[in-house]
Amino acid sequence: MLPAEEKPQSKAPQHVDIAIIGGGINGCGIARDAAARGYSVYLCEMNDLASGTSSWSTKLVHGGLRYLEYYEFRLVREALTEREVLMRMAPHLIRPLRFVLPHHKGLRPAWLLRLGLFLYDHIGGRMLLPPTRTLNLASDAAGAPLKPNGGTAFEYSDCRVDDTRLVIANARDATDHGAVIRPRTRAVSAKRIDTQWRVQTVNTSTGAEEIITASVLINAAGPWVGDVLATKLGINAGAKVRLVKGAHIVVRKVFDHDRAYIFQNGDGRIVFAIPYEDDFTLIGTTDTDMDGDPANVAATDADIDYLCHAASEYFAKPIDRSNIVWTFAGVRPLYDDGASDAKSATRDYVFELDEKPGQAPLLSVFGGKITTYRRLAESALAKLGDYLPELSRGRAGISSKAVLPGGDFAVDGLAALQTKLVSDYPFLDAGFARRLARTYGTQASVMLGNARAVSELGLDFGATLHEAEVRYLMTQEWAMTADDIIWRRTKLGLRLSAAQVAKLNAWMQQ
Predict the structure, then answer these.
(1) Partners of 99 in the beta sheet?
(2) Of 62, 71, 75, 483, which sits with the fewest C-beta atoms within 10 Å of its C-beta?
(3) Dist CA 313 CA 17 (whole Å)
C-alpha cells in the first residue's frame, strides 16, 4: 500500500478495464464495487467529489414512503432492503431515525397511511429497525412543538446519512482496492478506437493531461449525463434526463427530541424537518423542474418562502427567514418517464447501453438515489459483464459484505466507539469525540495518531477543527479548499466564522 500522502496522486495506468466519468455516489459506488472485484478502474470528476447532486440531498437513506402512491413497489422494496445493508456497511454515516407523520384531515386518510406503513414495515425484510407505532400527539413529546390539534400521528423508521462522506468513503475504498480516482479532472473527449475507448482528461487545477484507454466507459455524470453524451462523446441519447431542483433550509433547532417529522402539504408534496448537526433543524425539500446549468442552482426566495410556510403550517412557532442559518439546493438528474409534474417523476435508475459490434460499449446512468446506489453499481456491472474480464466475475456481490472505511464496528456500537475515543484520547470532550466518531468511525484514531494533548493536533481553526484533521483530509480524502472541508468532508461551515474560514483557506493554499 502506498504511503498515505501519495494515495490521491497515484499514477494512472495506460489501460483499464473500466473508465468512469462522474464522481458522485453512483460513479464512486461503481468504482468501489468494480475495484473490489478485481477490475482496473479510472474515475474522473470535473470538480470535487460529491460536489454536485450527492452533497445536496435531504440526508436520508429511506425506502421512499410516498413512492408507494405511484406504485413503485420494486423501487421501495429494494430501497427498504438497502437501508439495513448500508447501516451494516457504514454505521457511523448511516444511523436509524424515527419519523413522525401527523395525520392531516382533508389530505391522505388515516387508513391509507396505515396501509402504506404496513407495507413499508413488511416488504423490505426489516430486521434492525423498529416497526411503526401510533402516537397521540396530545400526550406524546412529539406533539409539543406542533400546533395543538391533539390528533393522531404515525411513527416509523428510516435512516439519516452523511451523504458526502458516504461518497468519499466509497472513493477511499475504491482506491484501497487499486482504483485511480481523479477529482478536479475533466473529461475532454472520449473516442472509440475499435474495441477500446480513448479518454483524454485534464486536471482543472494544474492543467496536467492524461490519456488512458478503457475496455468499457461509464457515463455517471449526474445532471451532466446528457451533456457528456452530446459534447464529449457525440452520441444522441435515447433516454432523457429530467432535472428537478430540491431546495432546503437549515434553521436553529426547532425541537429538542431526536425524532424527525414528515409533513403533508395541500399540494401533494411532503416536507421533512430533521434534527441536524446537533444544534439545527433541516427542512426540505422542494420538487421543481429546472432549466439551465445545474452548477448554478440555488434556493430562491420562492423556495425559501414555500419551505417556511409548509413548516409553519405544523409548528406552533412559525418558521421565518430570521431562523435560517443556511440554505442549499441541488439538482436531481431523474430519468424522464413523462410524468406530468416533478414530484411524481420516478426516482428509479435506468441504464442506456450503447453497443455496436466490434466496438467498446458505453453505459450511461440516468436517475437513481443515494439509498439504492450500491444496487445500481451491481446492476451496472452485471449489464457490462460480457465486456469485462472473465476472471473477476466470480466476486460479484462483494459490496454487500465488506464494510466501508471506518465502519468496522457493531451496527449499534457508535456510542461505544465515542467512549473509546475519549478513553484513548482523554483531551477530547464528549462533543468532539461524537463528531469524530460520526465523521470517521474507527478511522478517527488513524487521524488522531499518537496525539496526547489537543495542542499536538496543531493549529486550531475553530469548532474543534485542527491542523491534523485538515492534513488528513488533504492527504487521504482529496480536499483542496476550505469549502471541501467545511461543507463536504464536514459541516463545520455552520459553526466557523468568515475569519476562521479565511484562515483555513490561507493555510491550505500555502
Answers:
(1) 156, 260
(2) 71
(3) 53
Of the candidates 41, 341, 50, which has an alpha carbon nearest to the alpha carbon of residue 216?
41
- What CA–CA distances, in Å, run from 96 to 52, 129, 263, 411, 444? 25, 7, 19, 10, 21
The one-digit pLDDT tens for each residue of the chain (510 residues) are 333 334 455 566 689 999 999 999 999 999 999 999 999 999 999 999 999 999 999 999 999 898 888 788 999 999 999 999 999 999 999 999 999 999 988 788 888 899 999 999 999 989 999 999 999 999 999 999 999 876 899 999 999 999 999 999 999 999 999 999 999 999 999 999 989 999 999 999 999 999 999 999 999 999 999 899 888 888 876 668 889 999 999 999 999 999 999 999 988 899 999 999 999 999 999 989 988 889 899 999 999 999 999 999 999 999 999 999 999 999 998 888 777 576 667 778 999 999 888 899 999 999 889 999 999 999 999 999 899 987 555 555 666 779 999 999 999 999 999 999 999 999 999 999 999 999 999 999 999 999 999 999 999 999 999 999 999 999 999 999 999 999 999 999 999 999 999 999 999 998
Instruction: Find out whether 247 and 299 touch, Cβ atoms under 8 Å.
Output: yes
DSSP string, 95-139: EEEEEEEE--TTSS-HHHHHHHHHHHHHSS---SS---EEEETTT
Q: Which helix (H) or strand (E) holds 445?
A: helix 444-448
Q: Distance between CA atoms of 425 and 445, rounded to whole angstroms?
A: 9
